[in-house]
UniProtKB/TrEMBL annotation:
Belongs to the class-III pyridoxal-phosphate-dependent aminotransferase family. ArgD subfamily. N(2)-acetyl-L-ornithine binds at residues 132, 271. Its cofactor is pyridoxal 5'-phosphate. The gene is argD. Its EC number is 2.6.1.11. The keyword Acyltransferase does not apply. This is Acetylornithine aminotransferase. Transmembrane segments: none annotated. Keywords: Amino-acid biosynthesis, Aminotransferase, Arginine biosynthesis, Cytoplasm, Pyridoxal phosphate, Transferase. It holds the Pfam family Aminotran_3.
Length: 391
């Protein structure tokens, strides 16, 4: 018999009842160090007091009003994002997938309004992940994502990650945008080197193509800068954000330059919940923390400490791990064993990790994980690796 919850996930038999900072507590009392953060969502850990205060304060005043009215919490968060980024304007969504939908619509509408309705094609890269909607699975293009779901939304071209010649060949008079994650998350923590992102920006400018970045997983301080593209010193035209921006409350956003957003006038897009007062109150509290340069400096310091310890872990288990990659606190351990086995062994050792493609074990801890927790996490990963080695 089908379970009451549609069985689209292979769930681990863990039932968490409480979260405190970087710790998750299971129903039976076991405490787990959370290096997954709900897949890069709980950027400030579980039950962060500032976020709880922001949420409860707003909850006591007003939960929801329609976007038919002005929402001051939404305006305040948009202003913070605009002040801290390349963007001139922001639309709030509830998820990364919805941000993808709008990014695709915005890029196409831009060219339509410029008198180029033929420019609809969006170039994406192998291994990418942009969500599960019809547009997002078409953007990915992989058989695993699209098979069985009927006609695939047209207008996407897929290029192999790192194949510069194929990228140049894919651009034509119908190209609207290039859509790329500065660091592929689901694809296995694959960073786009700075010079490649700079090259992409240059190529987009030369060819008259919009650059759309998906920072749903790598944004909001995860790499040690507020947004990952800042490391390369180039700006996109449109950017998708979600996950960490709500610190665990469902919230996403599309950030854009005034020019890229020109087609999105009243009536062209909307969302019942997007930019809801509760979500934006929490989002503002997240921004106050993660956009603070001192906080980001600390993220970089913690990332250095964790990477250093992980190098030691890899060296101690050469049969299990091949290497460490990633940026900031978005880390991948390239494995020689099945990452799923390591995730499972991690459960026994009391540490939560997340598998990714390309035989990678993902570590996405809370950005405020402490030094002691980093040491404890690596010792638990060591126990997990030892168990997998022995199996
Ligand atoms: C890079 C990227 N884009 C988009 C998405 C989709 O976000 P959501 O699951 O919030 O719809 C994800 C989710 O993992 C992601 O990692």
């Amino acid at each position: 018999m089908i379970p009451a919850v549609l069985p689209t996930y292979n769930r681990a038999p863990l039932h968490f009842v409480k979260g405190e900072g970087s710790w998750l507590v299971e129903e039976d009392g076991r405490r787990f160090l959370d290096l997954g953060s709900g897949i890069a969502v709980n950027a400030l850990g579980h039950a962060n007091p500032d976020l709880v205060a922001a949420l409860t304060e707003q909850a006591n005043k007003l939960w929801h009003v329609s976007n038919l009215y002005e929402i001051p919490q939404q305006e305040a968060l948009a202003e913070k994002l605009v002040a801290s980024s390349f963007a001139d304007t922001v639309f709030f969504t509830n998820s990364g997938t919805e941000s993808c939908e709008l990014a695709v619509k915005m890029a196409r509408k831009y060219w339509f309004e410029k008198g180029h309705p033929e420019k609809v094609e969006i170039i994406t890269f192998s291994g990418c992940f942009h969500g599960r909607s019809t547009a997002a699975i078409a953007a990915s293009g992989s058989e695993k994502m699209v098979k069985g779901f009927g006609p695939v939304l047209p207008g996407f071209r897929h290029v192999d990650w790192g194949d510069h010649d194929a990228l140049h060949a894919a651009i034509n008079e119908n190209t609207a945008a290039i859509l790329v994650e500065p660091i592929q998350g689901e694809g296995g923590i694959r960073p786009l080197p700075d010079q490649c992102l700079q090259g992409l920006r240059k190529l987009c400018d030369e060819k008259g193509v919009l650059l759309v970045l998906d920072e749903v997983q790598c944004g909001m301080g995860r790499t040690g800068r507020l947004f990952a593209h800042e490391w390369a010193g180039v700006d996109p035209d449109i950017m998708m954000v979600a996950k960490g921006i709500g610190g665990g409350f469902p919230l996403g956003a599309v950030l854009a330059t005034e020019e890229a957003a020109t087609g999105m006038v009243a009536g062209t897009h909307g969302s019942t919940y997007g930019g809801n007062p509760l979500a934006c109150a929490v989002g503002a509290a997240v921004m106050d923390r993660v956009a603070d340069p001192d906080f980001l400096e600390d993220v970089n310091r913690r990332a250095g400490l964790l990477s250093q310890k992980l190098e030691g872990l890899v060296a101690a288990h050469p049969d299990v791990f091949e290497g460490v990659r990633g940026l900031g606190l978005m880390i991948g351990l390239k494995c020689r064993k099945a990452p799923a086995d390591l995730v499972k062994a991690g459960y026994d050792a009391g540490v939560i990790t997340v598998p990714a493609a390309d035989n990678v074990l993902r570590l996405l801890p809370a950005l405020n994980i402490t030094d002691d927790e980093i040491a404890e996490a690596v010792s638990r990963l060591d126990a997990a690796a030892t168990a997998v080695e022995a199996a």
